């Protein structure tokens, strides 16, 4: 019987697996070389590539923050704010730094920012972007609610939004800024450099949640814009806008404009247009409403031009106020010059009072075309007023060498020459400032700017006296009277030129005048475009707005009456309408 051993023999290791001393040394050498390579790589990254890696890290978390300058305030002549900047918040995101956000939080973010879910998703979809605006210029309270969500990669920054306390009454004059704070229209655009100031800069490191860790460069502090103190009187501006809007509504007109000037300094006290818009709401930026018609629109001024050829003749000594003219119709070539209410003869004063085309044209024809063109040119027609408005019109005064024979006659009563309402108001400073043409100033003056002498003080005085008869019984502007004050002025009615032809059913009605006429302080010019309620004559449609604006403005400025305090005016509906020629 065989007996087997309970112990088995351990098999010997294969020679290929034995760790000989040489192999051990080889493994140790390989590990040492690998370790040395890692140390070398670390030294290379820490020393040779330090700037590159640091820049790469900062590129992901370093932010250059714009420190917005506070835009300069625009004020009226009494320091009342017309345009101010208020702090608001802008929400932005860094999609590259954002972690997965719960859908519920994204829906709440979209709701707070008043964005559609798809719109928000589109803004955040590109995960490579480091910066994207989510919503600009929201209230601080709304921004705080957004930040309370605690979404990584969402941040806020302060900006400024422009507000306009005067609203519609001064919209085209002041203009407005865009969402980036830069001027887009009006004085906001014209005085952009003065108002904008200079933004500052702050470079910081932020963590992934948008929190500032530290500043990495010296802070460049912003320089705020300057204050723009206008010549405008907010009280007169509101009054002028209110009366213009009422006149446009009552006369069912297409549009209207009004200008109020200081007749002694040339300061612009008010300028308004209807229709207008609310500059605080960017949802109503219709180009037609934004247009500053008083400055940009050109039109033929009709009979408001008649005082200028007559003033030229007075200044030259060719006529006097009592000189009698044959005012029967007459012909120039194939054209005929006539009055709608003809009289066989009129004095020069009556030519102004009754607005005679025949009389005005005969005065103009006492001069050569070159002489008349030179006078009109010196009075500012065909030249920009240079008041500083964007898009300011220069009007149109063709050179005398291209005039046809009839054109010299028609230019005496406002056809064949184009002007802006601001140009016409400025031209009347010749009569209020003793014969000298004043520059228009948008800013408040400590003393009048140098004026340009056009006619003699005596000729200017005679023109004032004749223009006073226009608002008196028998004149074309009786509805422009002002209780307690003598008023001088001129009505005008002009057919509109459409597609090369004058339209019988489309007119502009104007009244331009000054008060107190014996020592003028204010000039008011009113233009009503396409009145459609029946009457379209300047004295009827523009006269009442002139009267109400002038009366209120004189009271606001504390100008003493120059007429008997017990004089009385007839109600408008009882004042006879004297129709002038068109």
UniProtKB/TrEMBL annotation:
* Metabolic or biological pathway: Cell wall biogenesis; peptidoglycan biosynthesis
Q: Does the keyword Cell cycle apply?
A: yes
Task: Domain (Penicillin-binding protein transpeptidase): give its ranges.
Answer: 256-550
Q: Where in the cell is it found?
A: Membrane
Active site at 303 (acyl-ester intermediate)
**InterPro entries for the chain:** Beta-lactam/transpept, Beta-lactam/transpept-like, FtsI_transpept, PBP_dimer, PBP_dimer_sf, PCN-bd_Tpept
Q: Which UniProt keywords apply?
A: Carboxypeptidase, Cell cycle, Cell division, Cell inner membrane, Cell membrane, Cell shape, Cell wall biogenesis/degradation, Hydrolase, Membrane, Peptidoglycan synthesis, Protease, Septation, Transmembrane, Transmembrane helix
Please indicate if the UniProt record lists Cell inner membrane as a keyword.
yes
Q: Penicillin-binding protein dimerisation domain: which residues?
A: 68-215
GO BP: any one term: FtsZ-dependent cytokinesis
Q: The organism sits in which domain of life?
A: Bacteria
A single Gene Ontology MF term assigned here is:
peptidoglycan glycosyltransferase activity
Q: What is its EC number?
A: 3.4.16.4
**Gene Ontology cellular-component annotations:** plasma membrane
Which top EC class is named for this enzyme in its record? Answer: hydrolase
What does the record give as the reaction this protein catalyses? Preferential cleavage: (Ac)2-L-Lys-D-Ala-|-D-Ala. Also transpeptidation of peptidyl-alanyl moieties that are N-acyl substituents of D-alanine
What family is this? Belongs to the transpeptidase family. FtsI subfamily.
- Biological role stated in the UniProt entry: Catalyzes cross-linking of the peptidoglycan cell wall at the division septum.
Protein name as catalogued: Peptidoglycan D,D-transpeptidase FtsI
Which species is the source of this protein? Pseudogulbenkiania subflava DSM 22618
Gene of this entry: ftsI
